[in-house]
Design a protein that fits this description.
Elements (H helix, E strand, L loop, with lengths): L9 E3 L14 E2 L2 E4 L13 E9 L5 E8 L4 H9 L3 E3 L1 E3 L2 E3 L1 E9 L9 E7 L30 E3 L9 E4 H4 L19 E3 L7 E3 L8 E4 L2 E2 L18 E7 L14 E6 L7 E6 L3 E10 L4 E10 L1 H8 L3 E17 L2 E23 L5 E28 L2 E17 L5 E20 L2 E17 L6 H6 L3 E15 L4 E16 L18 E17 L2 E12 L20 E13 L5 E14 L2 H4 L19 E13 L6 E22 L9 E10 L6 E12 L2 E10 L3 E2 L2 E2 L2 E2 L6 E2 L3 E14 L3 E10 L6 E8 L11 E7 L4 E9 L1
Parallel strand pairs: 15-18
Antiparallel strand pairs: 1-11, 2-7, 3-6, 4-5, 4-9, 7-8, 9-10, 10-11, 12-17, 13-14, 15-16, 17-18, 19-20, 19-47, 20-21, 21-22, 22-23, 23-24, 24-25, 25-26, 26-27, 27-28, 28-29, 29-30, 30-31, 31-32, 32-33, 33-34, 34-35, 35-36, 35-37, 37-38, 38-43, 39-42, 40-41, 43-44, 44-47, 45-46
């Protein structure tokens, strides 16, 4: 039987029952039915062997797994795979009995050898059946080493790493200090990534604003990946198998985003009961999955609930903060090659204030205050339901799916001043891959996405809101294809092409009389965006590989940060476009370290970046008909990225990432020509300039270390450092050139993690985890306060001092358990 999956290819499955010579004729050992779910661990390196003992129950399921020999992360990969294997049960005559089998899993990296091999190394004596077996048959003779039958073999192909991709295993990044066990928070420790503010999960990626970074879960676009409160992701970390990060030059299947891509892949359906949960200071989470109907049906539920509302009110009685999320998945195997599944997930966030009213007398004096109910300062939620059908073809895989989504956000300054936006969507897609030859694989796909946006101004007649976020219907149609071509043993080339069509049409009555959105109020807009992509991987030596990527990406107008339901309705002003190029090298180092160095250049055209158009560094002051949020600028980002890492699950590990870069924006600034050599400039003209971007940080450094102390103890720490963002000198409060020439102080923080783990529930565990972000604690400078001495002549530069926030320090104490 042959299976084909997106991440594992079973080349052979032919385990025929054989009786050992030393066994009696009435004893039949267990035989593997499905033992092909083995994957080379993401981020691992080199060749490794793991030996495990399995107890096979009388139903052919793996009841217990014991590690005999092996190292991480291969042990974790073998354990995770072994729990899903199935066998024909051992028999003593016609009676099914439990048995113990020793299996050897031999791992080889995909670039070195095509497969890790799974080998039954030694069949040990069947375990006695306590009540149904007769005394005479309860102690069969164990086979000896010399008479063990020749091992039958299953071969599986490891995960192919995309060119230009940083791949993080879910189990690995849950060990990262400061990430709070969240696989997606690990993006902060990767090169090319800078947060807006430390601890806030909105990131600039190679100079692109957070609103230009695409978030995906199993290929489903997600409007928001992190909760707005303390910042955990909206997906339970136990559901994540791996996280794929593309800072640029990504494969053709990704589109409609001009920045980087962060894609989370969920674990495949389990074939045994699996559960885990955790309780922390600020939230609690749980995940449970079980197979039913002889493993044809698998049901998973997961979720997280925050009780921060009660905690926040202890210190701020008039404020409430809450969030929760959920995931549910049902998978049914129709045939060995056909599966259907439903995957639903959603998230909710809310920040409330208490309404307070002050009464005055005729003289204007305060006569009293009254406290009203809580009202949402900001509330947002989204939900997705994905129905998919998967079919394994003889040489590939095909998926057809439909996704329905709803999302909305509400903001207000009082209980009566509330503005809401909402969006509903339907997406139909087909995607697949087909091996054309041993050297060539085709990947293809197409989709259509329909969005309906609505706006509720709460009775307000604000023309700005109706012009920025009008009620409308947007339709996006896209198709892509690329080819993975193994041109030679050392050369891999991946050419690709993606084309998207973006359309937008205002709904009837969307605007008031006389209003417009960058064009005629009732006319539709359509734009075609072709996007060529090219990636190459060349193995120069056995330990050095050159990688290069190039791509063009487009995106409709967007906000600085992603907010569910809130999207600019100004397609007629043009798409955002990015030209992305990189050249790098991957070097295998001693002690299983791997070094990746990358030179990159990204050019952004028509970019929506409120930090450049709304902060006022010499830019035009926005007005009602030309809001700064919808203005577009040109930008550029270039630099070098370094990442040296060792798998975080190893006993002693380390991780260093460093980015040296410059991000710029073009702006129409005021240029002053000075006639006074000792004073600031005094005359001005309007000109176009390229200046450092508001969140340009020259240096970004992460240094991480962790160690297994033995007896279940594990400790780790991370130092995170970046230089301050730029600001402009001012004269009488007016920014003057050279714009963004000054820098705020450098910020650093220390994150720590300490874990004690005990074995429980058979192969399960209980763990006590203490974790802290910014334990130093360190304040961060976010802006400069500039004050003038009031002198008009001669003009002098204002005196500027940094303004700090914080310290933003997040402690976490929790208990985790799994089985």
């Amino acid at each position: 039987m042959t299976k084909s999956r997106p991440w594992v290819l079973v080349l052979a499955l032919a385990l025929a029952p054989r009786a050992a010579a030393a066994q009696t004729s009435v004893t039949t050992p267990p035989t593997a039915i499905d033992a092909g779910h083995v994957v080379y661990p993401p981020g691992a390196h080199g060749v490794a062997t793991v030996v495990v003992d399995l107890v096979i129950d009388k139903d052919g399921r793996v009841g217990d797994v014991t590690v005999v020999d092996g190292d991480e992360p291969f042990v974790s990969a073998a354990l995770a795979a072994a729990r899903g294997w199935s066998f024909t049960p051992a028999r003593r005559g016609d009676l099914r009995v439990s048995a113990r089998v020793r299996m050897l899993v031999d791992f080889h990296p995909p670039a070195v050898a095509p497969v890790p091999a799974l080998v039954p190394a030694l069949a040990i004596a069947p375990a006695p059946e306590p009540s149904t077996a007769s005394p005479a048959s309860s102690a069969p003779t164990a086979p000896s080493l010399g008479t063990t039958p020749p091992p039958d073999e299953i071969q599986v192909r490891g995960v192919r790493k995309e060119v230009g991709e940083t791949q993080l295993g879910g189990a690995e990044v849950r060990q990262m200090p400061g990430a709070f066990g969240d696989a997606f928070r690990a993006i902060e420790a990767l090169p090319g990534v800078t947060p807006i503010v430390s601890g806030l999960p909105f990131f600039f990626v190679r100079g692109a604003p957070p609103g230009n970074v695409g978030y995906f879960l199993d290929g489903i676009p997600v409007p928001l990946l992190f909760h707005l409160a303390l910042g955990p992701s909206v997906v339970h970390p136990g559901l994540i198998d791996q996280v794929d990060f593309f800072p640029g030059g990504y494969p053709a299947r990704y589109g409609r985003f001009a920045g980087g891509i962060l894609d989370g892949e969920t674990l495949p359906p389990a074939s045994r009961l699996h559960a885990e949960g955790n309780v922390r200071l600020f939230d609690a989470g749980v995940l449970a999955e079980t197979p039913l109907l002889d493993d044809r049906l698998t049901v998973l539920v997961a979720g997280r609930y925050s009780y921060t509302a009660a905690l926040v009110q202890i210190f701020a009685p008039d404020t409430r903060v809450a969030y929760w999320d959920y995931q549910a998945r049902v998978t049914y195997r129709l045939t060995p090659k056909d599966r259907i599944s439903i995957f639903a997930f959603g998230s909710f966030d809310e920040i409330d204030n208490r309404d307070q009213q002050t009464s005055y007398d005729q003289a204007g004096d305060v006569t009293g205050q009254s406290v009203g109910p809580f009202y949402p300062v900001f509330k947002t939620e989204f939900h997705r339901v994905d129905l998919r059908y998967d079919h394994d073809t003889p040489r590939g895989h095909l998926r057809v799916a439909a996704t329905v989504g709803v999302e909305d956000s509400i903001a207000g300054s009082s209980a009566t001043q509330q503005t809401g936006v909402a969006a509903s969507s339907v997406r139909l897609r087909a995607e697949g891959d087909e091996r054309l030859s041993p050297e060539m694989k085709l990947r293809y796909g197409a989709d259509v996405l329909l969005y309906h946006y609505s706006l509720d101004t709460g009775g307000s007649t604000g023309s700005d809101l109706q012009a920025l976020y009008p009620q409308r219907n947007d339709v996006m149609i896209g198709a892509y294809g690329d080819v993975i071509w193994k041109a030679s043993r050392r050369v891999e080339v991946v050419p690709g092409l993606r084309t998207d069509v973006f359309t937008s049409r205002l709904a009837p009555g969307a605007l008031s009389s006389g209003q417009s959105v960058s064009g005629s109020p009732m006319s539709g807009t359509a734009t075609v965006a072709p996007e060529p992509r090219l990636a190459t991987r060349v193995q120069a030596t056995p330990k050095v590989t050159w990688v290069s990527t190039f791509g063009v990406a487009h995106q409709p107008p967007s906000l600085l940060v992603p907010i569910p339901g809130l999207t600019l309705g100004s397609l007629a002003t043009g798409l955002q476009t990015s030209l992305q190029a990189s050249q790098g090298a991957e070097v295998e180092l001693p002690l299983d370290f791997k070094l990746t160095s990358t030179l990159f250049l990204h050019d952004y055209l028509g970019l929506n970046d409120a930090t450049a158009t709304c902060l006022g560094n010499g830019t035009n002051i926005p007005n009602a008909s030309n809001d700064c949020l919808a203005q577009q600028v040109r930008g550029r980002a270039y630099g070098v990225e370094l990442l040296a890492r060792r798998d975080l699950t190893k006993r002693i590990t380390g991780w260093v990432s460093y980015t040296l870069s410059r991000s710029t924006r073009e702006t129409h600034g005021i240029v002053f020509n000075s006639t006074n050599p000792t004073g600031p400039p005094v005359t001005s003209t309007n000109t176009l300039q390229e200046i450092p971007a508001e969140f340009d940080r020259t240096h970004v450094l992460n240094v991480l270390g962790a160690i297994d102390l033995g007896r279940g103890w594990r400790a780790g720490a991370r130092v995170f450092l970046y230089t301050g963002r730029p600001y402009s000198p001012t004269v009488q409060g007016i920014p003057v050139p050279p714009f963004n020439s000054e820098r705020l102080p450098t910020f650093y923080r220390l994150d720590v993690r300490l874990e004690k783990r005990w074995r429980a529930f058979g192969n399960g565990y209980i763990a006590f985890v203490v974790e802290g972000m910014n334990v130093t604690p360190t304040k961060e400078a976010i802006s400069a306060q500039c004050n003038s001495d009031g002198t008009l002549f001669p003009l002098k530069y204002d005196t500027c001092k940094p303004e700090y926030i914080g310290p933003v320090t997040v402690p976490s104490i929790g208990v985790e358990a799994g089985m």
